[in-house]
Amino acid sequence: MQVKTSSIKLKVPDGSEAVLVKNLYLSCDPYMRGRMNRPISASYIGSFQPGSPISGYGVSKVLDSGHPNFKKGDLVWGLTGWEEYSLITATESLFKIHNTDVPLSYYTGILGMPGMTAYAGFYEICSPKKGEYVFVSAASGAVGQLVGQFAKLLGCYVVGSAGSKDKVDLLKNKFGFDEAFNYKEESDLDAALKRYFPEGIDIYFENVGGKMLDAVLLNLRVHGRIAVCGLISQYNLERPEGVHNLSALLLKQARMEGFLAPSFYHKYSNYLELVLPYIKEGKVTYVEDIAEGLESSPAALVGLFTGRNVGKQVVVVARE
Amino acid sequence: MQVKTSSIKLKVPDGSEAVLVKNLYLSCDPYMRGRMNRPISASYIGSFQPGSPISGYGVSKVLDSGHPNFKKGDLVWGLTGWEEYSLITATESLFKIHNTDVPLSYYTGILGMPGMTAYAGFYEICSPKKGEYVFVSAASGAVGQLVGQFAKLLGCYVVGSAGSKDKVDLLKNKFGFDEAFNYKEESDLDAALKRYFPEGIDIYFENVGGKMLDAVLLNLRVHGRIAVCGLISQYNLERPEGVHNLSALLLKQARMEGFLAPSFYHKYSNYLELVLPYIKEGKVTYVEDIAEGLESSPAALVGLFTGRNVGKQVVVVARE
Predict the structure, then answer these.
(1) Which of B40, B244, B258 lies closest to A250 in CB terms?
(2) Which of residues 250-289 of A touch B (CB under 8 A)?
(3) Of A42, A230, A253, which has the smallest distance from its Cβ to B259's Cβ?
(4) Which of A239, B55, B117, B146 is deepest in the core (most CB within 10 A)?
(5) B310 and chain A: CB distance < 8 Å anywhere?
(6) How far is B242 from chain A (nearest CA, A)?
(7) Do B103 and B125 touch, CB atoms closer than 8 A?
């Protein structure tokens, strides 16, 4: 990645249905790693094009519009470019922002794709019930912190794992997890999980994959559910680690299911109805890790894969 | 395993609610391998007790009964002992046999636990739809042969894998699979699956695990489903093989789910209503591999794990 300077006319070409936006906040998300690979036929989103700006989720302000649904001054979130100004032709991926009495950057996180990921993954994929035992990995991240809070609000017992003392403190003291641990300090993940889940795990919200998944499989309860949201520990490996304990799915009659937030975007308004009151009443909090300036975005993105970020990684391009 | 001779009184003890049965047909099933391990806390069925008869599914005739639901002359299927006569105290595991115009041995297979496994796994876990692409491994086995036929009856495209030319012939010529292949002759399982499923796999009925599972994951379609019925290739390994391609669950928004037939036994009468007409009308056929005599049962059981059996492995202890 490199920063390039060029110029763009701040106007939609005549006859085009595109919108021209000023980008305010850009979102660094783990799924973007997959877009650095060669395209695979069935990928749900295209690979990055060498020589073109990175594309990703962001919050933007409409400066000019050829599309009847958008007008100058509108705030939107959706897929945009990693640049100061973008001409967006795929306007079907844009959501208009109506609620502005929350931080605008939240539309890269709790009110955007990661929020929908937590909502769909937890409520739709996991079918959670009050009192169940819930484990979340990468629990202080953009999605994990929400899953843990949603689970607590439902009356579940919730434990999170993360990769530093600061993150573990956040989980326990800010997000209200019942317990949390630093996976880097556990030489035996199976033993760690047995310590926190002597009765076993009903729901695992999977963000990391690899050894943690193998350890969770050993600790599943009957009819356990694993929502496969991400496998961040595996994305930079030449070959993903082998998972050895899948026989647990059989013995425990358990389910493991992958999902992608965009398949649930038709429920976005339901989600806002749920989560906006939670935010305003202080029942859910959201921690962001803010990088300043477009030039900070490559390092911010790469930092996800070593866990450098604390909370949702956002890049501020402009504040308004 | 060894054959021991001892004597038993062919009468239920006074005051007992047990039943005393003569065992006719014994069932050799892959799940029994797990019962040779030390008990694990959450196992769904106990380990075998060294020094005691093997227990397993069988078809038996009641000789004496202390239980109001059973009387002398009744035919039953359920958990019994690998012996000529058994005193069964866990009578809740016994089903009375009402339909005797089919081979009695079928109650160890198509009309017993393996039948319920195919029924529950295919219809309940896979939620199949007409026209979908279905792959079945260990496809000529007690369960696989039924899944393939059920899928064909529903209008699916069905391919099966098995471990010999004879079995592949059975799949194509007797069970009506669209295609079948000998996995032992395929050096690249991924390539084999791409040959038979150029459009990918909607449903995988998993009986084997390991490398085949890894190859299927690479060929899943969006919203694919994997019913984990068994992992027979893994049961005799010191440590199960690693499965590397689980990220497919995420990219394809796919589901992988383990299940056990006994959780669906409350639907047994529904299953009989479906399958008995199929049998009588010749729409479903069932192939058994019959071993004669109780003394043949150890080798018959062990043979499952090298694929020696062709079709459902049954041991005949007595024919009436």
Answers:
(1) B258
(2) 250-260, 263
(3) A253
(4) B146
(5) no
(6) 4
(7) no
A-chain residue closest to B238, CA distance: A244
Cβ contacts (< 8 Å) between B34 and chain A: which residues?
A: 251
B264, closest residue in chain A (CA to CA): A253
- Both A138 and A43 in one domain: the answer is no
Q: How far is CA A142 from CA A24, A181, A315, B300, in A?
A: 18, 18, 13, 54
Quote the CA–CA distance of B106 and B88 in Å, as a whole number.
Answer: 21
Tell me, yes or no, whether B67 lies in a domain: yes
**3 state SS of A205:** strand
Quick check: A257 and B254 CB within 8 A? yes
- Give me the helices (H) in chain A, please: 113-119, 144-154, 165-169, 189-196, 211-217, 247-251, 268-280, 297-303
A-chain CB neighbours of B222 within 8 Å are 42
In a domain, residue A306? The reply is yes
Residues A95 and A147 in one domain: no
Average pLDDT for B131-157: 98
Same domain, B121 and B69: no
Burial class for B164, CB neighbours closer than 10 Å (0-12, 13-18, 19+):
middle
Query: Residue A205 and residue A202: Cα distance in Å, rounded?
Result: 10
CATH code where residue A214 lies = 3.40.50.720
Domain span including residue A241:
113-262
Q: Under 8 Å CB-to-CB from A162, ≥6 apart: which residues?
A: A138, A139, A140, A144, A168, A170, A171, A180, A182, A183, A307
B80/B118 same-domain check: no
Nearest to A258 among B234, B252, B257 (CB): B252
Q: What residues form DSSP beta bridges with A85?
A: A22
Flag whether A104 is in a domain. Answer: yes
Q: Is residue A270 part of a domain?
A: no
| Chain B residues inside the 8 Å CB shell of A133 | none
Q: Chain B contact for A120, CB < 8 A? A: no
Instruction: Quickly tell me which residue has 């030390």 as its tokens.
Output: B38
Tally C-beta pairs within 8 A across A and B: 111
Q: How far is CA A129 from the centre of its chain?
A: 23
B251 and A44 in contact by Cβ < 8 A? Answer: yes
Mean pLDDT by 10 residues, chain A (320 residues): 94 96 97 83 73 96 97 98 97 96 97 98 98 97 98 98 97 98 98 98 97 98 97 90 96 97 97 98 97 97 95 96
- Looking at the fold, whether A235 and A307 belong to one and the same domain comes out as no
Q: What are phi and psi of A109, to 5 degrees?
A: -135, -105
Q: What is the mean predicted confidence (pLDDT) over B199-221? A: 97
A200 in B contact zone (CB under 8 Å): yes
The answer on A43 and A101 residing in a single domain is yes
pLDDT tens per residue, range B242-283: 999 999 999 999 999 999 999 999 999 999 999 999 999 999
**pLDDT value at position A244?**
97
Sign of CA dihedral B190, B196, B170, B142: positive
**Looking at chain A, which residue has its C-alpha nearest residue B126?**
A255
State whether B200 and A230 contact (CB < 8 Å).
no
State the DSSP H helix or E strand holding residue A219, giving kind and residue range, or none if neither: none
Query: Distance (Å) from the C-alpha of residue B7 to the closest C-alpha of chain A?
Result: 36
Question: Which three-class secondary structure state does DSSP give residue B20?
Answer: strand
Q: Do B256 and A243 touch (CB under 8 A)?
A: no
Is the domain of A178 the same as that of A291?
A: no
Q: Mark whether A309 and A202 lie in a shared domain.
A: no
